[in-house]
Specification:
InterPro entries: ARMD3-like, ARMH3_C. The protein is mostly helical and about 725 residues long. The protein contains 33 helices and four strands. Strand 1 and strand 2 (about 395) form a beta hairpin. The longest helix is centred in the middle third of the chain and has 31 residues, at about 280-310.
Length: about 725
């Protein structure tokens, strides 16, 4: 360097040595000037300046092969083993995706023949016997399909996109071959090395094909899956053979396949799934769903317990930190769980045989089959954990390998009820509100089934169901875990009652309340129809319904702007009419029948105000006039009861110096039944059967669109 070389020349007196250093100094100066000219020198502000050239970054071999392909080269013409070497190298999906997108717009004429060749070679090596080449072929074809669908999102994945991907000639045969190869991969024995990774890659390909379009009904690749009758058999066999490794993927794929033109007769999967009666497969499906929900419940309970035992400062920092971090990641976790619930919904909605698996006590008789790969090779689904402070946080994984936790005294329905009690606490959030709605639709389908109702009311089939309750100012959070075993119908009624108490708010979830009241009505209709006397304390439920009626009146100005409150109020009044008219057929004791009259008389002012509320709308021209008139008719018996017994109570109280006690009022009610004349209402135990096509078609279409966005972003 300049500052070190020049002083050295003055230290030597020998002419030869001095000449040597002068020449060396001149050489170094010239080299440095050259480096500065070509821009390879260090920054001018750096003290130690190096003249050595910067080395070019090395590329992976697969990246070099990608670059050669995208430039238009055809190296396989000169090298017969080119594709053998190509698929032996690990796929760089990120680089391949970026280069495909860039070349698609810059040099489409060069890319198209290369892409067609790559697609054909992928189909060849997917059926190879070499596991690494087979795996890399799956990864490559998955990236190719995803890229073409991504760059054609605006125009759609139509025939032009299909032609660009695999060529116009033989496209149908190529995709039929692809799906058949996926079927073959699904049926590989688990004892083979790498079978879990290979099946995961096959699932990636088939799920990518399902989500090339956000509107699944416009996805032309779904037609190839509808035409392949073996795919349904393959995924159901996976449920039987390895539910712990691939159960979640099967649920996700099944949920998507059942949504394609689901209201047409062209979807063969709906037909086959509705009559599917393999008890082992259906039990495996129930266990996969139950294990996932059980993991969720346990994680929530652990976090809730930790937050309760922490200091107020820790709770505050947890709330702030979780609120800051809650974002796309949390949303992603929840949507994965929504698709699992969607598979659950389709099972209870379409398949009557699934109800026995739903209510059947789970056992720990089956375990995860071993594999030569470690557990980290599998791709378990991600599942959310709800923070008690921020309401939405994330847990990394759900471990399906430990299925023994979902056993003993739990079944899918008991675990699901606890899950619902967690989710409904956070329904103020729009995403969680949609999840709660999906849960209630599942409960609607369950409560319409006679076998499920019979099992839920069987006092010999009891479960311990812990229902989480939202923290409220007028009550403390219950931490009691030693709960008695009860019929599932008791837990379900408690769940609905908890929702009624905890969701009286200005942003009124009208749709959820409608479904909640519908679930209660279906349970009571079953009890009345079968004369089932459930051991249950009804008075808290009556009080909750009366408070709900009072809330509707108090918030009339805000709630009547967009919703028909009279329709909801009529359903609540019909529940009271069912108790009043037919309570003696399903209430467990005569005292319970007396109590329903007592609560009606005690809160007579709520019913009088409700009648005045309906009368005001019925006498004016407005959109709610018909509903208001119907509500007035439904209130007839309640008004007869309150007028009849209030007269008796007032007459008796005038002879007493002290206010009447509850027992005195109950005695008056018992002694004056014979003078009470009521109107017999018809069809109180009748309800409109749930129909997805007429009421919830748009809701499920939105779920599939959001799921498609999620999978595309992944």
């Amino acid at each position: 360097k300049n500052h070190s070389i020049l002083p050295l020349t003055n230290r030597f007196t020998e002419p030869k040595i001095a000449s040597f250093f002068c020449i060396l100094n001149t050489f170094l100066r010239s080299q440095r000037e050259n480096l500065v000219k070509i821009g390879m020198s260090a920054d001018s502000n750096t003290v130690n300046k190096s003249f050595w050239p910067v080395k070019t970054a090395l590329k992976e071999k697969i990246v070099v092969l990608y670059d050669a392909l995208f430039s238009g080269d055809q190296p396989w013409l000169d090298n017969g083993h080119y594709w053998d070497d190509f698929f032996l190298l690990k796929v760089n999906a990120k680089y391949l995706l970026e280069e495909l997108e860039r070349t698609y717009f810059d040099k489409p004429a060069v890319l198209k023949p290369q892409l067609n060749t790559m697609f054909d070679q992928c189909l060849t090596f997917i059926n190879a016997t070499h596991r690494i080449r087979q795996l890399n072929a799956y990864y490559t074809i998955c990236t190719l399909i995803h890229t073409i669908s991504r760059v054609n999102q605006r125009t759609g994945f139509g025939n032009p996109a299909l032609d660009f991907l695999c060529g116009s000639e033989g496209a149908d045969n190529k995709f039929e071959t692809l799906i058949e190869s996926v079927n073959h991969t699904f049926l590989i024995d688990e004892s083979f090395s790498g079978s879990i990774l290979l099946k995961n890659a096959a699932f990636d390909v088939i799920l990518t094909c399902c989500t090339t379009m956000l509107n699944i009904n416009e996805n032309m690749l779904m037609d190839y899956m509808m035409a392949n009758v073996n795919l349904f058999d393959s995924i159901t066999q996976l449920l039987i053979r390895c539910p712990a490794s691939h159960g979640y993927d099967v649920c996700l794929l099944l949920a998507l396949l059942l949504q394609y033109h689901k209201y047409d007769t062209s979807n063969t999967y709906i037909i086959r799934f509705s009559v599917f009666d393999d008890e082992v497969a259906l039990t495996s499906l129930a266990q996969v769903i139950g294990s996932s929900l059980n993991e969720y419940n346990k994680a929530y309970d652990i976090e809730r317990t930790a937050n309760e035992s922490s200091s107020w400062w820790s709770s505050l920092t947890t709330f702030v930190g979780s609120a800051i971090q809650s974002g796309a990641g949390n949303r992603r976790m929840k949507k994965v769980d929504d698709c699992l619930l969607l598979a659950f919904y389709e099972a209870v909605h379409l398949n009557r045989n699934f109800i026995s698996a739903l209510t059947h006590t789970a056992t720990n008789s089956w375990t995860t089959k071993g594999s030569s790969l470690s557990s980290t090779d599998a791709l378990p689904p991600l599942i959310p954990v709800l923070s008690s402070a921020s309401m939405l946080a994330v847990q990394d994984q759900t471990d399906f390998s430990n299925m023994d936790d979902f056993s003993g005294s739990n079944n899918l329905l008991s675990v699901f009820l606890e899950y619902c009690s967690i989710i409904q606490q956070f329904s103020k959030n729009e995403d969680m509100c949609n999840t709660t709605k999906l849960c209630y639709l599942i409960l609607l389908c369950i409560t319409e089934d006679e076998f499920a109702n019979a099992t839920m009311h069987d006092e010999n089939v009891t479960f311990t169901v812990y229902l989480h309750k939202a923290p409220m100012r007028h009550r403390k959070r219950s931490s009691e875990k030693n709960l008695p075993s009860r019929p599932l119908a008791v837990a379900l009624l408690d769940l609905m009652m908890e929702f009624i108490w905890s969701h009286m708010m200005r942003n009124f979830p009208f749709d959820l309340y409608t479904k909640c009241i519908g679930i209660i009505q279906r349970i009571l209709s079953f009890q009345k129809r079968t004369r089932t006397r459930l051991s249950y304390s009804w008075r808290p439920l009556w009080n909750a319904l009366i408070c709900l009626l009072k809330f509707l009146q108090n918030c009339e100005s805000q709630l009547t702007k967009h919703r028909d409150l009279f329709q909801l109020a009529s359903r609540i009044i019909n529940i009271f009419n069912l108790f009043i008219t037919f309570g003696d057929t399903f209430l467990r004791t005569p005292e319970a029948y007396d109590e329903v009259f007592y609560e009606t008389v005690r809160c007579y002012h709520v019913f009088d105000n409700l009648y005045a509320f309906a009368f005001r709308y019925a006498n004016n021209d407005n959109e709610f006039k018909e509903s208001a008139l119907k509500l007035m008719v439904n209130l007839t018996n309640i008004r007869l009861i309150t007028n009849h017994f209030n007269t008796k109570i007032e007459t008796f109280s005038n002879t007493q110096n002290n206010p009447l006690t509850e027992n005195q009022v109950l005695d008056l009610i018992r002694n004056n039944y014979d003078t009470l004349a009521l109107k017999l209402h018809d069809d109180l135990d009748q309800y409109d059967n749930y129909s997805e096509k007429t009421s919830e078609a748009s809701f499920f279409a939105n779920i599939i669109v959001e799921q498609g966005i999620l999978l595309i972003s992944e």
